[in-house]
Structures are given as structure tokens and as C-alpha cells.
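It is worth pausing here to work through a concrete case rather than discussing structure prediction in the abstract. The textbook approach is simple: state the sequence, then state the predicted structure, then interpret. We follow exactly that order.
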Amino acid sequence: MESLPSRRKLIEVVSLHTCTRNCFGVADYAASCCRLEDRDFIQGPVTDAKATLLRLSRRFGRLVPFDEVFVRFEEGSAMFPERSTWQDPANYPAIRPVIDDTATYPCPFLGTDHRCGIYEDRPDLCRNYRCDHLQKVIDLL
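Step two, the predicted structure:
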């Protein structure tokens, strides 16, 4: 007899599906938490920045410097002066957004397939983040 998946496994599968295919409950929308877009949103604070850099350095086989992955308050607050979340020092360090022509400002590790390119080594912030929509979906399990 086949056993049922654990709640943890269900949450993992439902989260992946929701985040890559139904983000914020919008069909065919994905990985909004990995992009700033036009919202007053920041991907920070990253509380395990040193550990994340160690994991990334092992992954890439080279020393990954802090400023390649993260942004400090002084720089970040100047990047988005109109966004209040970027003006709060408590939100740093934050993941360094890619300054792009479409003004979506994605995480540097977000793939074109809307999946995380460093999923196994991502910061705790990303590992533990659940937007309101995803949390409501998980609460139904």
C-alpha cells in the first residue's frame, strides 16, 4: 500500500506550483518575490549573508564577494529613494537587484524559467518567505 506524502512534502510541492505557475493567485505569473517590480518591496534583511556567501563560493568554485550578491543600506537607499522599504536600515543587507530595462529588478539568480538558480544554497530569507497568498494556500492543506 502506498503511503501518503508528509505535510512537509505537500507544502513543498504546493509552494513550487503556486510560486512558479500561480503566484499571487494570478495564472501564468511566477516568482514575484524574486522581483521588485513597481512595488515598495525589498528582499531583505538577509540574516545569513555570510553563510550564504560561503555556500555560493562552494557552488561556484570561487570566492563570491558580498557586493556581488547583496546591497548595503548606503547604496540601496540611493538606488530606490522613492521606496520606503529601501530607506529603512533594518531591511539590510538586501539581495542586490539586477537593474534591467524592463524595470522588474529581478534577483540575480532568477532564471528565465522563473526558478531559482541557487535553490539549494539560497538565503534563509528566500527559504522561509511565504507571501500572503501562498500562506493562505498552505493553510488549506
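Step three, interpretation. The mean pLDDT is 94. The helical segments are 7-21, 49-60, 66-69, 73-79, 124-128, 132-139.
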